[in-house]
Amino acid sequence: MGDRATVYGTSYYERLLSVPRERVLCVDVETTGLDPEKDEILQLAMVDGNGDHLLCTYVRPDHRKRWPKAREVNGITWEMVRDAPTIDDLADKIGEALSKAELIIGYNISFDQRMLEAAGVSFRAKLIYDVMEDYAQVWGRWSDRKGDYLWAKLSEAARRFGITLDAHDAANDAIATAHLFYAMLGSEDFREAAKVKTEVDARAKRWYEEQEKEKRSREHEMGDDDFVTSFTLLMVLILVIGVPAIFLATCVARLW
Predict the structure, then answer these.
(1) Which single residue of 28, 38, 150, 189 could bond 174 by disulfide (Cβ 3.0 to 4.6 Å)?
(2) Running DSSP on this structure, what letter comes out for residue 22?
(3) How far is CA 171 from the centre of its chain?
(4) How far apart, in whole angstroms, are the C-alpha atoms of residue 143 and residue 152?
(5) 199-207 long-range contacts, Cβ below 8 Å, gap at least 24?
(6) How far apart are CA 164 and CA 101, in angstroms?
(7) pTM attached to this predicted model
(8) Which of 172, 131, 165 shows the shortest CA–CA distance to 45?
């Protein structure tokens, strides 16, 4: 089994927690499927770090009216979204929410980001943090086949911290994720994992610096050896070429 460790170290999490909650943006989407190239957003939720709604709405897809497999999961029908705004209609509100955010978080946020960017919404150079990734590193079940800890459902993670969740509703998922973010990063287990990660990183850095120091020392020694070797070869050349040349010059001078 691999070592349990958070993805980052203590200082990184302190930086995340230092962002004012009003500047934290938690994002969640419900979609017609999992493929950003052909599936569309059906519901979008953006809440701040306090769980307060910034933008929570159904979204009318531009091309599809049926999504039977996704409907089994999220329960969203065409009738629920046909009078809703399109993602283009929401562009200004989405842009406003993103512009005020210093930190964007989510549970499997990479999926939400891909879906939104496929719809023309750019996260630009925002600081982004995936709660799911680190939750798995601390509390996930190990998989020998994958060589890593398995991801856990948001409902499972929320339950661990006593967070109420009506899963697969974008607004509820976003609010639960925001609460989970603070509960998780503030827990003793997570702090201990982050501390271990920091210590491991520090040891790795020291080892790397020692290796670089030894490498430079070896290169310096090799440089000295090269100088000695070059000097020796030069002296040999002088003896081999110079001495006979001097002897020959002396003989010629005597003949004259």
Answers:
(1) 28
(2) G
(3) 24
(4) 12
(5) 200/3, 200/5, 201/9
(6) 25
(7) 0.78
(8) 172
Alpha helices, DSSP H, located in the chain: 10-18, 68-74, 78-81, 91-100, 109-118, 131-139, 154-160, 170-186, 188-237, 243-255
Confidence of residue 175 (pLDDT cuts 50, 70, 90): very high
* Distances from the Cα of 41 to the Cα of 52, 131, 164, 202, 243, angstroms: 21, 21, 24, 43, 89
Distance CA 55, CA 77 (A): 20
CB under 8 Å to 153, separation ≥6 — which residues? Answer: 167
Query: Both tokens of residue 222?
Result: 């090799």
Phi, psi angles (nearest 5°) of residue 215: -65, -45
pLDDT score of 136 more than 70: yes
**56: helix, strand or coil:** strand
Given the DSSP bridges, would you call strands 142-143 and 148-149 parallel, antiparallel or unpaired? antiparallel
Residue 102 is classified by DSSP as S
Token pair 């496929």 is found at 118
pLDDT tier at 223, thresholds 50, 70, 90? low
What's the rounded Cα separation, in Å, for the pair 39 and 99?
26
| pLDDT at site 253 | 43
Q: In this structure, which amino acid lies at residue 123?
A: F
